[in-house]
Fold:
Amino acid sequence: MNDVILSRIAEALTWTGRYVERADATSRILDAYLHRLLEDPWRDEDAACRSLYAILGCDAGGQPVDMQQVLDQLAFDARSTCAIEGALGAARLNARSAREAVSSEMWECLNSTWHALADQRLAARRTGPYAYLELVRRRSALFFGLADSTMSRDDSWRFVVLGRSLERVDMTVRLLSVRVLDAAHAPDWPTLLSASGADEAYARIYSGFGDTPRVAEFLLLDRDFPRSALHALTTAEECLAALGRPRQDPARRPIGRLRTRLEYLDSQAMEDQLPVLLQDLQAACMASAEAVAEKFFPYQGPVEWAQEGSRAV
Amino acid sequence: MADIFDAYALADAWDEMFVRPGEVRTAYEPVLAALQPIEPTELRFRADQMARAFTDRGVTYAFAGEERPWPLDLVPRILDALEWDLIQRGVAQRVRALEAYLADAYGPCRAFEDGVVPWRLLLSSPHFHRAAQGIEPPGGVRIHVAGIDLVRDEAGDFRVLEDNVRVPSGVSYVIENRRAMTRVFPSLFAEQHVVPVDGYAQRLLAALRAAAPAGVVDPRVVVLTPGPSNAAYFEHALLARLMGVQLVEGHDLVCRKNRVWMRTTRGEVPVHVVYRRLDDDFLDPLHFRSDSVIGCPGILSAAQSGTVTLANAVGNGIADDKLLYTYVPDLIQYYLSEEPILPNVESFRPDEPGQLDAVLDQIDQLVIKPVDGAGGQGIVIGPKADRETLERCREAVAADPRGWIAQRPVALSTSPTLAGERMAPRHIDLRPFAVNDGNEVWVLPGGLTRVALQEGNLIVNSSQGGGSKDTWVLAEGPAETPSPVPPAGAPPEVAPRQHGPDGNLTLVQEGAQQ
Structure:
């Protein structure tokens, strides 16, 4: 009898998936950057940090930025959903408002992670942020692992996966954009690879250290690596198709178009049109997310009532 | 050897565990034997473990603005089979009588015509809703779920303290307490057969489905919650999850043509039974408080036209008014022609001529309660109150006799409770939960035992800093014998396990090389 889900729940599930993925990806990026900075002390810390802000879509401000500020604003800030802690907090609240749709184990995973963050944050002040970042990655993996093993493959599941896939495309594109569009203080290719958790997968395919523009090709076009834009787009499209909308589906269209474009793109063409392609990808993700919201989450917020004859509030 | 019960001094009340110091009641013998050898630090450790598990599971409540783990004491409260039989019959009887009263009050009003209950009681109740008049609920059920608060007095007899037939809460804690106890203290359950509590959700769902409007073959049931910021949100979510139904908020529902629909990703879907966990006042801004943004406009009209069932029904508040409470023994005799199985606590009705003066004269020896209060708010315990409070209370009662009742202060029974690193007696009560499906009033074995955590305190509500205990109902006789041996014959065929390479290095014949 539970073949349908409430629009509100669907929205909460999508965003739970998105926010957990965001926390995971942010933690990977921060980890890769920190590592890089330590290995190469001659790098310009301010410039490196600025490129981090650019990737994550935050404003770095006019003052010089250092790594501690990066951690405070992009990891430990509980009020911003661009930061790890804020994203996990939002994921927890979303899961809580969809409490009967996510499995108890998934909810407990998010809830206990949220409660564990404070301790790790304090420890990070003394011993560095690695344990904190690792906890976030592990728990994100646990969350999606539990989703995988405890959720039926129904619409609820599809909304979680849809959210995760859209966020994945978005994060990969953000990483590449900084490298491609803003070469001044961009991360090098190997950092990009490890920030996507893709260094080993890349090495296996291209047998070698990823210090070439081929990395962009891998992160965008690889069919098998789950964080590549093509793979994530394909997953998102499968979800939308199964969610059962007509063929002229405004949510599926932008994604499907780009997916086909990526499928048949060759290396040379990709290199030539990379900046445009990245912009198109980002636009497609946004358009699709908006169309999903419009189609599936049509409820309004709380209704306000004014009594007849009463003063306008 | 010193143990945690050594310094246990009985308070001036019936103690659930000990007859007198050192002499334990039969039902508690195995528990005492299991707890006695445990070091206090070990007990503390387990208590902390439990608190942590509750925090991680999100079993928390808001106290003084912060989120705290649900307080569960490690010593269970035990009811033997005889005691439980009495409670169960008494609670069911009470629910049947209140059910009959509601049907009467929103129907023929016989009890008022016959002078059993004065008219003014009904007409002056803020919970008497014209809108509920004439709604004929399916199966005649208005009280789908009830929570009847019991206490055990100085002589060891159970008495009813109050009835809750609007939106009684707490049942999720019964389920969670048992879950936590079996995990933290599995050894306690070894010696005795404790009746399980996990059938509640199934019973509730069956009762809700039975309450669906006539003609609906496969009714859709939903739980209506005020939202995640509500103190009982955990319970709403747990019940929805255990029943496998949707947990909706007011704005997930929409009323159209006197029907209720919910907004889903596949369009609007009809709803037939709403187990609502918000008060009448907030349910429908068109009928009740127009500033309510958590309700669903139009839902009451849909209920009136019979396309949707609200559980519990609207207007039930007239039956758990504390002034009506004083009439319930009469109602049991009037409607059911039975003697009350569970007595009330002796009470006064200040609104009756003559009684007001009697109450005001001995106000320092009585418990004064607002007829409308919930969560232990507004209660003044005469013998423990200071002069100023008493004076204020006296004025309030004199100004509005209908708004108050007075009761003899009952020394609630005590139970050993972990306080720091030792056991101390603390006052407890009991809230059994009853589910009415129209044919039978079923009472969940046990119920919620609440504990007043401060010494001598008589108010057990969690909103006042109270704790809880797992409540055991013992099955009659010894622990059940294991299920009968399977019929003789060949054992069922078992498929062999498959094995692959196990990773161990094969022993290489050495010596071949030289």
